């Protein structure tokens, strides 16, 4: 058991992001945190092998705010997702999943597995954005890949 994380009750959003970086990097994604875009920043950008950009907003609470935030970044990315703690209540999970589907936003659940290790499960696959502006996406991609 991961003794530092035997419970999610004391987890901060920053810890959730840091742990998620490790998980997503193991899935062969290039991952960047706190990426500036216009007058704000995106919690995380993940780039797949096809150079598609996924913006991910993390929240411990207030998942609706996370959806609003990630939608503001749609002009520069292919996909948008939120990452929240996995609700215990099935009805709550279904409600959140339905809203994410309506908003064409992916949904990642952050949770601890039976051994207490952090894990991410994709509950709703994001729909590719048809809003993004090629010039802005390329600019963001180039900035990230130059690091």
What does this protein look like?
The protein has 147 residues and is of the alpha/beta class. It has a single domain, classed as Trna Endonuclease, Chain: A, domain 1. 32% of the residues lie in helices and 30% in strands. It contains 4 helices and 6 strands, in the order H-E-E-E-H-E-H-E-E-H. It has helices spanning 13-25, 63-71, 90-102, 134-145; strands spanning 30-37, 40-47, 53-59, 79-85, 106-112, 118-124. The protein has a 6-stranded mixed β-sheet, with helices on both faces. Helix 3 links the parallel strand 4 (79-85) and strand 5. The longest helix is centred in the N-terminal third of the chain and has 13 residues, at 13-25. The chain is globular. The protein starts with 12 loop residues before the first helix and ends with a helix.
- SSE pattern: HEEEHEHEEH
Gap from first CA to last CA: 35 Å
The name of the CATH topology is: Trna Endonuclease, Chain: A, domain 1
Count, helices: 4
Q: Decide which structural class fits the backbone.
A: alpha/beta
Query: Helicity, in percent?
Result: 25-40%
Over all CA atoms, what is the radius of gyration? 15 Å
Mean pLDDT: 91
The largest sheet is: 6 strands, mixed
Structural features:
147 residues; six-stranded mixed sheet; 6 strands; globular
